[in-house]
Known about the structure:
Number of domains: 2
Helix content: 25-40%
Number of strands: 18
CATH topology of the largest domain: Carbamate kinase
Bound molecules: adenosine-5'-diphosphate, aspartic acid, magnesium ion
CATH superfamily of the largest domain: Acetylglutamate kinase-like
Low-confidence stretches: none
Number of helices: 13
Amino acid sequence: MGIVVQKYGGTSVGSLEKIRNVARKVAQRYKNGDRIAVVLSAMAGETDRLITLANELSANPDSREMDVLISTGEQVSVSLLAMALRDLGVPARSLLAHQISIRTDNTHTKARIIDVGVETIKKVFDAGEVAVVAGFQGITLENDITTLGRGGSDTSAVALAAVLGADVCEIYTDVDGVYTCDPNICDKARRLDKISYDEMLEMASLGAKVLQTRSVEFAKKYNVPILVKSTFSDNGGTLTIKEDEDMEKEVVSGITYDRNEAKITLLGVQDRPGVAATIFTGLAEKNINVDMIIQNVSPDGKFADLSFTVTKTDFNKAMEIVREKAPQLGAREVTGDTSIAKISIVGVGMRSHAGVASRMFEALSCVGINIMMISTSEIKVSCVIDEKFVELGVRQLHETFELDKPGSNFGKD
Ligand code: ADP
Ligand code: ASP
Ligand code: MG
């Protein structure tokens, strides 16, 4: 008799029929004698609908109120699943974040989990019931509702698996595992049986939304294996675990893209110490993460153009801050571009191979894709491109690095 933590995403609970389907799957495990905690997302499209409502009402919705609003989607799905389970004769209880003490910091709309209580869930287990937990939401020390960022139910599930000591955290979604790139935009994408925490972390942070980045950070920290499976078929599955001997050691193991990127440029700022600090401190104070940064200094060394990227979600707030700071930095103009995206190649094998980046640039130029910004780390290369070329770029890179076939894709050592 084990402890099982399962998470079902929005498309898996997107209609009453799908909720009944999830209930049948959970009931089967329950009848094996397992103690089960099921974490749910809101029904497909619901979180988007709530965000749109807020944005239609207000140009800059208050983030505390935003969390009160967007956390409601999960309250609906957990109550419905608990009802469906009861209809199948399985005792079940829905639980919201405040009932099980999912404590977070105060960063509304992208809060970080500090601690998760186990007492309530253990009592539910002891009563022979299935715990149906609302994902995505948390509660601050002051008892305010928070949310964990888009896709945050993955993180709720992994955190719960860690504190309950589950052997594995099962994430059920609309694809049957983690692929070399998004299978919904590239039909040559290949499913991986296993992927290391580090590679998955990089893929997730660069846009592979199959797992939220924070969930992989948690899994790595507490050594919780994550099994990604399809809700709709028993085949496939990908295990995210510590790197091991028989894992594929590709130079490039995945291609990712992120459409949630926007670029802000300050033209003609004075080239003197403190300029970057003024802008980026202002953004950090409002919890806005900056991704890529590029600075070009004019030939006479007096002025610079500074470009950087933030998420599209933070774009309006970031523009407001930058426009406010621009006069004191002497900026001639502030411009914004929300029609960009980031495309990346990822692979731990890149550490020991030269020439990977140049091959990426060449592949993109072959199909006429212009690169606006570049950033690299030991195990990834990212390029900012025009959003309309994302699919073309992903397919081109997938082919260039021959990711449809297992084995080294950049010559042998
Ligand atoms: P859920 O609602 O179940 O949490 P998500 O939409 O958040 O599902 O994540 C699943 C989606 O992630 C897939 O439908 C797929 O389009 C996308 N995806 C992006 N990159 C990958 C990848 N490398 N492997 C698998 N799926 C990916
Ligand atoms: N419902 C939330 C979202 O759409 C959380 C999740 O799905 O994981 O982002
Ligand atoms: Mg998700």
